[in-house]
Amino acid sequence: MTTNAAHCPRCGSPLAAHPPTTCGICGYALFVNARPTASLIVLDGPPSQRVRFLALRRAMEPNAGLWETPGGFCDGWEHPREAALREGREELGVTVELGDFVGMYIGGYEFQGELLPVLDCFFLAWLPADRIQIDPGESLEYSWFPLVKAPKMAFSTMDSAIVDACARLTLSTLGH
Fold first, then answer.
1. Are residues 80 and 144 in the same domain?
2. Where is the chain membrane-spanning (predicted)?
3. What is the rounded CA–CA span in Å between residue 158 and residue 144?
């Protein structure tokens, strides 16, 4: 399952090759660009003792039933930091406080029969005193897991970001 454009999105002519390609009729250059996302690694406890993160159990495909970090696609022209805050409000029902940027990771997301490239941006975050109210359309439940013993996540980029967040927090705790 890959991104498969058979026709030019501008003029509708058949394309000679899969993207990246150029339409032989109108000259439109077609690329497969990664779609940006913003995700949160929500931590608990005081800064020096944040050893657990919040995970949501996915309610929908792809990878329904697996654990994930809160997050989603950025809207057009939306900065990933703003998307992370929006996703926190939508998925957790609270306004999260954003911390450091963890990193960007290239991954894939199955949507409408295509495997889309994504550029997943992860931020550390924590919750205010508000109570979590997950969106039942997106998540079945939530749980707190140790960063050092995270379960297998729904997407490999989440696994990588959690490992990097754990390393970052371990180094900052040790004073490096």
1. yes
2. none
3. 15
Amino acid letter, residue 73? F
Closest listed residue to residue 155, CA positions, set 125, 127, 123, 117: 117
Which of 3-7, 60-64, 158-162, 166-170 has the weakest average pLDDT? 3-7
Contact between 83 and 75 under an 8 Å Cβ cutoff? The reply is yes
Q: Is there a contact between 133 and 92 (Cβ–Cβ < 8 Å)?
A: yes
Strand intervals (E) in 25-89: 29-30, 35-43, 52-58, 67-68, 71-73
Q: Which residue has the higher pLDDT, 74 or 32?
A: 74
Does one domain contain both 15 and 86?
no
Domain extent for 46 = 33-173
The model carries a pTM of 0.88
Single-letter amino acid, residue 21: T
17-32 confidence digits (pLDDT tens)? 989 999 999 999 999 8
pLDDT in tens, 76-109: 999 999 999 999 999 999 999 999 999 999 999 9
Strand partners, 124: 41
